[in-house]
Amino acid sequence: ETGVTQSPTHLIKTRGQQVTLRCSSQSGHNTVSWYQQALGQGPQFIFQYYREEENGRGNFPPRFSGLQFPNYSSELNVNALELDDSALYLCASSTRESGELFFGEGSRLTVL
Amino acid sequence: AQSVTQPDIHITVSEGASLELRCNYSYGATPYLFWYVQSPGQGLQLLLKYFSGDTLVQGIKGFEAEFKRSQSSFNLRKPSVHWSDAAEYFCAVAGRFNDYKLSFGAGTTVTVRA
Fold it and tell me: Which residue out of B34, B44, B49 would a mutagenesis test of the A interface target, given it has the greatest number of A Cβ atoms within 10 Å?
């Protein structure tokens, strides 16, 4: 069983740029959630996708957007990057029924 | 709104000693509760979860947690820690009808000394 994989693992961007992070969900999982984890803090819920539709959003501005594809993989896009966007971005996949989120190892974004 | 407080930022424990990590939650009803562990440079791994039923929950790696409704707490325990238990631990809460959108605490870092 393949776990959740995220790419890239590390990247550096400058303020104002745009970034796309990718996530391949675990086999059989139809729900993907994205979390932002700033240094020294707990993860914060960004949004969740279920069967290609957004299914809830946390307190993040519209420049954070996402997609889920028919194979249930997902992308997180962030436009107009700000310094405070520097964080570890975690993707988690699950089924709607189980309540267990399986997390990837994350993409560490540094904004200079 | 749901929220989680982990009062201890950092705990140091000797190998072989017991460990207890505190978690208090705020939610209008009985929520779903979780404990996750994160090793350096890694993602989060689920240790255990509480949905309903027996308030003492057993998890992986010898961990257990007890749900106490009267105290709005879900403390994590391990009778005897191993050096490999050094990590960051997160308590999380989700409402029963919000499709497991988790709210995490700020985490407790556990250091194990020989």
Answer: B44
